[in-house]
Amino acid sequence: MFWRMTGLSTASPVDSILDKESFTLEELLDEDDIIQECKALNTRLINFLRDKAQVEKLLRYIVEESPEDAEKKQSFKFPFIACEIFTCEIDIILRTLVEDEELMDLLFSFLKPDHTHSALLSGYFSKVVICLMLRKSTPLMNYVQGHQEIITQLVDLIGITSMMEVLLRLIGADETMYTGSSETMKWLEDTNVLDLIVDKFSSSESPEVHANAAEILCAITRYAPPALASKISSPSFVGQLFHHALEESRPKSVLVHSLSVCISLLDPKRLASASYQAYRSNLSHGTVVTASPETVDGMLSSLGDLLKLLEISADESTLPTTYGHLQPPFGKHRLKIVEFISVLLTIGSESAEKELVQQGAVKRVIDLFFEYAFNNFLHHHLENILVSCLESNKSLLTDHVLVDCKLVDKILNSEKNPTLSSDPSKPTIPTEGRAPPKIGNSGHMTRIANKLVQLSNSNSTIQTHLQENSEWSEWLTNVLLKRNEVENVYQWACGRPTSLHNAGRDSDEEDMRDRDYDVAALANNLSQAFRYGIYSNDDLEEGQGSLDRDDEDVYFDDESAEVVISSLRLSDDNDSSSLFTNSNWFAFEDDRGGSSLTSPSDNTADDAPAKVENEEQDNEEDTADEVILDQIDKVAPFSDDMETIVLGNGPTKEANGDDSITPEVASVEPEGKQVVPNGVLENETAKDDATVTSPDPVSNKKEEVADFEMEASPKVEPQMG
């Protein structure tokens, strides 16, 4: 057990079993505490489990299916516990496994074609093998090197995600594997594992197989050993990918996932992410693959065949939607082709740019943008394509977009007709009997138009083209500028969430680091603010009751400060008493330069009237308190033999006409005592002039007011001071 203290812990059920003269492995596996005891390194238990016979039984639970008539715990619980025992990473048990070839043969017999491969046992097998990769890398790789049929068997089972993960780590395409064992991976560079994986695109019809094969290949482009990385980026390998992708008899999933591999070779964002992950993991064996000009040329050779798949005239499929129906739907394969074109334009290859312009790829994508007005994925990729072309400062791309593709004219025509066209020859048709909806790409058109205006300030070609179009100038003045003004969330009078001001940040942590205020200082200010009750004018009990507490009793942590910050960020930015400064909140206006507020507990009877008089000038509730006092005087005159009361809702004037003001108190005092400033009770009948401090007048306010209501009589008159 984890908790082992003399006299406090009870005997573990596992120890009770181990104390028996004879027991079985199944008895231990049936105990819920066995995993806990393994992690606690129970010596007797580990010595029992390290035995070869027991390790073999544990392996059989993992690699062999239970009979159909077996109990549930034998089919589910025992295999799970056996897997968990291995993944506890107890060195002596793992050593027993990897140093015995018969046990290793039993473990990898799970991969044989004549064996059943359920998802449950496949997951257990995967966890055990990956544990061995992490803790016993060299013995495991030596065994696999001597039994290379394991690689082929894993590729055959690539459709099972658990097996794909084993293969992914086995060939070194995982950022966390073999960080210090690069020598053990060299033999994999001479195998044909890449060819075996690519052949799955042609030999299998399963989309799961295609997806898992593409995931492994994409991982190889980021983390694989140098030899494998250079092989996957070779023109011959890329040509092999496109050969399988463009076969008409193959399902579209082959095309989609083959292009995913090509995109992973080209996409600089993915490469930058891989570089960061490699740096973070301190990898020395992996290299980030950069596409060579030969690789790009190999991809461009199949560009014409890809663009043919963007034609929709021969496709007769129909997809009903909420706004109408699509004939045909755009489809994943066309979207992946557009993404591939977008990535080709980001690598800065002149040959790729010339080929895309010559083949009319950009023009075709622009047409699809207006034909499929509700496909935001397509709109996003087109925006990236146009930005890459316009920001390249290359006249070839800029003139092609503005002149050949007539981008500005198409935007203006679409703005003139902002509703969905009812033309049956279009791929997007609205529902009959309903008003056509507004097109869904207006937002992207606005972003593209704003990008043109922005780039026209630095690009004379774009500026000249826009100035020559009088219709554009009119639309810019009457529509675009007004739309930008309306959609500028920073100018909305109703206020917006503060996160919009930091929308470009990558994480909340960066947002916290770059705030313009000191959270610690704010938390300290808030602690003082609520300690002195300056935010609780209506709740005097809470405010005054906190006066006698120590600073430790009133504490605001950073999270509490953040909550208050969020509620105050929408306040007037011109407020001089901003919460986001380290100024002294508690100094009066006349004393803000150097003096600080004195604690109320230090006030004396002499300075209390002056303080209350100052408060009377700022507190509008004083007048209401006087009115309430007058009403009490009229309704219920008090007798002389009853208790004296002073209302504590604010300062009041003396009833005898004296201009002096009493401090804020609210108490019912015994007969014969009067209330003097600063809340000190003086006993008139006492033989000496000693004063007695009254109890907290606010804490008992409710009880005393209740007593006053019960004991008040018509003969009592108010007595102030």
UniProtKB/TrEMBL annotation:
One of its GO terms (molecular function) is protein phosphatase binding. Transmembrane segments: none annotated. SUPFAM superfamilies: ARM repeat. Pfam families: SAPS. Residues 416-425 have a biased composition (Polar residues). It comes from the Eukaryota. Residues 416-443, 592-625, 647-721 are annotated as: Disordered. Residues 615-625 have a biased composition (Acidic residues). InterPro entries: ARM-like (IPR011989), ARM-type_fold (IPR016024), SAPS (IPR007587). Belongs to the SAPS family. This is Serine/threonine-protein phosphatase 6 regulatory subunit 1.
